[in-house]
Amino acid sequence: MITSRTLNLREIVVMAFISAVFGVLYLLWVFLNQVITGVLGPVGGGILAGSWIMAPIVCALIIQKPGVALIAELIAAGTEVMVGSVNAGSVLILGFTQGLGAEIIFAVFRYRSYKLPVLMLAGMAGTFASFLTMYAMYGYSQYSSVVIWAMLGVMLLSGIILGGWGSHYLTHSLVRTGVLHNFALGKAEYQKRTEDSA
Amino acid sequence: MLDAFQKKNCFLQKVNPALKLGSVLVIIAVMIPIFDPWTPLLLFGVTLAMIVGLGGVSIRFLSLLLLPFLLFGFSFIWIQVVFPDERGETILFTIASMPVALENVFTGVSLGMRALVFASWSLLFVLTTEPTRFMLSLVQQCKLPPRFGYGMMAAYRFLPAFQQELQQIRTAHRIRGLGEKRKLKQFKRYFIPLMAGAIRKAERTAIAMESKGFDGKRSRTFYQRIQWNRSDAVFAGMFVALLVVLFYVRMEWFI
Amino acid sequence: MIDIQTTDVSVRYPMQNNPSLPPVSLEINQGEKILLLGASGSGKSTLALALQGLIPRTIDAEKTGSVAVKGMAPESWSITDACQHVGILFQDPDTQFCMVTVEEEIIFGLENIGISVDEIETRLENSLAMTGLTKRRHDSINNLSGGLKQKTAIACLLAIDPETMVLDEPTANLDPQSTEDILQLWMDIAENKNKTLLFIEHNIGNLLPDIDRVIVLSKNGGVITEGSPREVFRHSFSALEEEGVWIPTICREALKLEAEGKMNWSQLPLSLEEWETECTRIGMEKSDIDSTTAEKYQIRDEKPLMEVKNVSFSYRDHQALTNIQFNLYAGEFVALAGANGAGKSTLAKLLAGIHVPTTGSIIRNGTPSENMRTDDIMKQTGFVFQNPEHQFICDTVEDELTYGWRIAGVAQKEWQKDVEDMLAMFHLTDKRRENPFSLSQGQKRRLSVATMLTSKQDLLILDEPTFGQDEANTSALMNILQNLHRNGKTILMITHDMELIEQYAEKVLLVDEGAIKYDGAVDTFFEKKELLHQASVQVPVSRELKRWRETFLRQEILC
Ligand SMILES: Nc1ncnc2c1ncn2[C@@H]1O[C@H](COP(=O)(O)OP(=O)(O)OP(=O)(O)O)[C@@H](O)[C@H]1O
Ligand SMILES: Nc1ncnc2c1ncn2[C@@H]1O[C@H](COP(=O)(O)OP(=O)(O)OP(=O)(O)O)[C@@H](O)[C@H]1O
Ligand SMILES: [Mg+2]
Ligand SMILES: [Mg+2]
To answer: What's the whole-model pTM score?
Structure first.
């Protein structure tokens, strides 16, 4: 089989399934998020911001093709709308900007490097994009700059830790199960291992 | 639960999903420069009336969905009061030597209501749109490549399965003699098998789809066509009218 | 005309050292009905994928040798053409759907091949009618029972109407009556439309005479033997036995009589009818005395292990069980039978504490389960899910198998040998480092059962533990169960295989439409023709044969 740079059906369905699994986890998350936000305000809500960007980063890491991060985030948003999210509108917009944020980083590295620092950067870019979007959508301009900077800081940190490191950690645990043999990451890891043992 | 409303034969259910989705995005855009509390309040009221009146959704169910959102909305108020960009002049009272200004309360309410408006318009869409129709409309009207549409559909079909699966894996752990352990370590224990299973299933589903002749091209028959109809014109008309009224009301009374 | 021709076709999945399908050469003619036999894991499902060109078109696996269908290479077809040339019914009923309802799923396939809406309408109606799903057309596939899902998959295939159909275990999970109906349906279709059918099945029951040719794959590659069913089972009996593939009970028995010199078959019977015709022809009659020494089933007067009292259970909008009442005694081997969708799996899950009764109560060892912690119930009950994948929680086969011991803190040296035995017994030794999800369907089933055999629970519930297994593995598994049973374990087994009930079970529980219709000894169970018919269950062939055997014995005495 020729491994082209465009996405094939198998990869799309896998992306959709991964996003859907995250979607299920998000359903629990959203509840947690609303409670945290309600009590701690938007700054507290930022703590979990990095988790929203895990699905696209995990997908990008697994499939390693152009557009994956953006598309995965859009599919995740679309699936969430299908389940009947109360946030359908914002989810779609956020999905687009977040995905774009992460995608740009992968593009800068010409879709060649998926090492931990790159993932962290992508996580950061994603949450930064979502910060900008929320800034406009939810009128953050009306808050004092202390709050805004604190929120930005918390979100970026969350993007780096949850979005970057978290995705890296989970995906590499997944490689060990062998289910990724048919994807770029699984193949690369397998090659590395055979070379190591040789 | 949702599908009971989604399948109802009411006006909103007949409107093209693409159009409804568009309206949600327009509403979000329109609300961005608005910081007075009245416009979002008015809009929120109208939206609820539409969902109940034109979508046949029960008020009870609707409030049940919006209730947790109130807390979220409320956070905007207190943050605004405590950390405003500019503290207002009409001091209402002070809590622990912190002045509470009317202007800030108003801005807080405005932002909180804005979040509620976004939520209610989302609900207007979500509660009156069947997922299959949504997907078909994305493919037919928004020119989404079918492989994305049907790929999403396949994943959507598996959502209840994933939820069951989470339960199932938990059961499997319990049956195999491992009780509930600490949460974080447990998370990986659940997550990895869930994900591994999902990826295998996804691959097999994709293979099955192709074996049924799905090539992801546009040249397929559509048994169900999502067509533009009278409801769409009426809805579009209503929507524009709503925006115009909102604009005038704002002009006349609030500015 | 030759329909399918393969020359030394072999497939290796990525990162595997050995081919999953060792080189095989086959020739199948247009309109033939073929039964493809082979041990579990011999690459049958993989071959099916290669025949439609899915390997290598979609699946990243290395194919060598050549395949030609109607003289063309399957991988050269476009996706839409391929599905009209060769249709595959997949082995796993869960992952072959992508839409929500039955109707949408059938329509999906029809839309793909681009036929007109009117034509879609007709084909939809027809295929629904043929599979008896008309009433279920708007049901969500997720909520169907295993058997109904299988029928949905069949309806999809019938709607697309490919020229050649590969049916990968089309009747696994189906109840005996549905199995026969579905197989008959396929035979009729093949007859009327001159389709080529390739059955991949472990047990094809009474329809063997309709099969034109049997092809037996070897684990080590190539074809062991092929020919008409009569030739294959008569002349290659021992080779088949050695390979561990399925041999119809009727042939086995017939050959045994012949070996004993009691009968000389002019043609080896392949079905009960053929057996009877031949016997009648030479003037023998089935002994009508009930020779089965009618062991009366002894109700044990011990305290029951489990008392089920007036239990009902509903899924959200569907009442699955009503007023279930029975006792389970320690040390019993109970079979739970019933039609598809009758509520067997649901009942099993109630017993294992996975579901909680809507009304009524289950009493375990004298304690009502309401008063017990769910964890404790589950720790006392071993459970094998109908879907093997629900069982897996580890990364490799070996980890999965040893999990129970490791959790219980047993030292490695104590179980090391047991693991090796277990792996060997279930033919999983060379799969020990693989991920459970990458196994073949039969291998998964065995692993999921094996994981529960290492535990110490005194009640073991198995939901269709033998489906998709070849003969060798089925008997290995049943022997283990029997040993556990002898050592005092209580076993409740859901199965559609009446032979197993006849051979191993002491007691039968029959579930029909959510209610218990029979609770008692196996012998009397199979006498209740009316009840059996109503519950889509059939009398096992071996039971009929036993009577014939009786005749032959008496014959001998008379002579
Ligand atoms: N995607 C895959 N990756 C790696 N190995 C695989 C994969 N699919 C199947 N195998 C292996 O290939 C071999 C053949 O599998 P296949 O499913 O074709 O067997 P089968 O004859 O259909 O068996 P069964 O009767 O149990 O269904 C098995 O040993 C299986 O473990
Ligand atoms: N999760 C569910 N939600 C709703 N209905 C369900 C669910 N699971 C099963 N059912 C329904 O309950 C009934 C009993 O299902 P169950 O799985 O117990 O049948 P079964 O006897 O095990 O059948 P089979 O032999 O096909 O496995 C069926 O009509 C099925 O459609
Ligand atoms: Mg198979
Ligand atoms: Mg069942």
So the answer is: 0.86
